[in-house]
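Design a sequence for this backbone.
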């Protein structure tokens, strides 16, 4: 639309300017031609009739000269005034001849050249011509002023009609010019905007992940160069993304393979450390301390391997939901009891069978255990576990609140990232560094959300929202 308006404005300005210039030149030409014709005819008639005038002239002679000059024009539109000193006579006895201005009289008095002036009289314009009658001086070859002045007034109705027709012609030409400009603008816009729209669609397609999108390159103008550059950029991006995806896939496969290979020796190590733990009391203190350290580190390593295996399943898309209709409050109580946290964690849970939903019990247990364990490790008691519905019974809300120092503002956006450490100097943690990332993945699989925030009164709060109702057509196992 902006392009069409711009073309229309340019066409309008061009048409108006061209029309104005054409009108001015045509009007000047018409008036100049009419003026030259009138002056030439006036000189001819005066040169022919003036010699017959008695000198010094009297009023009847002046009137006769005025009448003869006016009658010489066949159309009868001339009005003539002849002046000599204080005498004046007109071709029409009752004509006041008001067109002759003092300025025109002074110009005729001061010059022997023919003088003219256009004067507006009422609804039309008249051409007023003034000239002095001269006689050739005997033996000198020079013209001498006779004192007789002839003034002619010619209405320019014909010329005005010509000018009006020019205006009408210009106005009629402007409308087709504007229409042609709009048509050209539409054609230009179509030619210019088609590749731009194609580029926009291609860019949107790239943004949606279809990196094999390419543009057809036609011509050799700037738009063709832009399309060619886009294709080169898209090809380079596709190659880079493919390389990155390959590297990521190899890294995930490596983590999964390593985790899988570690499970067997870890199982043997765990069995040995269990036996050593039973006999630790009969060992000397240094050996007992070393045995307990090995046992603790083996447990941590086993937990890390399990978490890596779980993350690998998420990355490979192999994680599966096994949905079951359960009482969420009872599930949360079981999670705390299984880990001996009942006395360490305060609860605010609804009565039995108040909040029920179709969830994966094992994954819900992992979510709650990771959040509560995180609060116990990094927060401070009291820790509160809360469960309630959202009022519509369509979603369940689980909150874990602690009374610790809270989460720094620069850490909040990263708390669910894998292996993220808020303190770069802290190289070892009790957890694997994957607990919150696994929590976020499990919640996402349920179609829910999880978020972290600081409490106004101090401490951190983790909030999980889970949908309770699912379509009856949902399968029991959902990837």
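Sequence:
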């Amino acid at each position: 639309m902006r392009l069409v308006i711009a073309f229309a404005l340019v066409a309008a300005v061009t048409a108006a300017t061209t029309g104005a210039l054409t009108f001015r030149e045509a009007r000047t030409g018409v008036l100049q031609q009419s003026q030259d014709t009138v002056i030439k005819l006036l000189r001819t008639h005066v040169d022919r009739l003036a010699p017959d005038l008695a000198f010094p002239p009297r009023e009847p002679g002046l009137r006769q000269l005025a009448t003869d000059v006016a009658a010489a024009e066949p159309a009868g539109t001339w009005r003539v005034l002849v002046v000599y000193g204080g005498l004046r006579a007109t071709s029409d006895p009752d004509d006041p001849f008001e067109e002759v201005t003092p300025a025109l009289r002074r110009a005729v008095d001061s010059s022997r050249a023919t003088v003219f002036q256009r004067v507006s009289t009422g609804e039309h314009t008249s051409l007023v011509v003034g000239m002095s009658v001269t006689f050739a001086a005997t033996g000198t070859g020079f013209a001498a002023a006779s004192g007789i002045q002839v003034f002619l007034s010619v209405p320019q109705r014909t010329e005005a009609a010509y000018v009006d027709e020019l205006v009408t012609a210009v106005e009629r030409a402007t409308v087709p010019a504007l229409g042609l400009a709009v048509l050209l603008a539409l054609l230009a816009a179509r030619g210019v905007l088609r590749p731009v729209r194609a580029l926009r669609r291609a860019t949107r397609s790239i943004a949606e992940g279809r990196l094999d999108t390419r543009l057809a390159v036609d011509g050799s103008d700037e738009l063709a160069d832009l399309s060619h550059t886009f294709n080169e950029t898209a090809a380079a991006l596709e190659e880079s993304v493919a390389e990155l995806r390959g590297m990521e896939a190899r890294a995930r496969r490596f983590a999964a393979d390593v985790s899988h290979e570690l499970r067997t020796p870890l199982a043997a190590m765990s069995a040995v450390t269990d036996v050593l733990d039973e006999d630790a009391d009969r060992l000397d203190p240094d050996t007992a301390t070393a045995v307990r350290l090995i046992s603790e580190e083996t447990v941590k390593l086993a937990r890390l391997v399990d978490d890596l295996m779980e993350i690998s399943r998420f990355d490979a898309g192999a994680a599966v939901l096994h949905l079951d209709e359960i009482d969420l409050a009872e599930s949360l109580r079981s999670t705390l009891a299984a880990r001996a946290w009942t006395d360490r964690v305060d609860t605010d849970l609804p009565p039995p069978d108040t909040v029920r939903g179709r969830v994966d019990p094992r994954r819900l247990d992992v979510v709650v255990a990771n959040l509560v364990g995180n609060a116990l490790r990094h927060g401070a008691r009291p820790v509160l576990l809360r469960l309630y519905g959202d009022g519509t019974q369509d979603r369940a809300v689980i909150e874990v609140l602690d009374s610790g120092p809270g989460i720094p503002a620069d850490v909040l956006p990263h708390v669910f990232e894998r292996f993220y450490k808020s303190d770069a100097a802290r190289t070892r943690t009790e957890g694997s560094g994957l607990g919150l990332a696994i929590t976020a993945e499990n919640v996402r699989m349920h179609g829910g959300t999880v978020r972290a925030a600081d409490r106004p009164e101090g401490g951190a709060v983790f909030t999980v929202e889970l949908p309770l109702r699912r379509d009856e057509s949902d399968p029991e196992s959902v990837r």
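Confidence is low (pLDDT under 50) at residues 424-428, 472-479.
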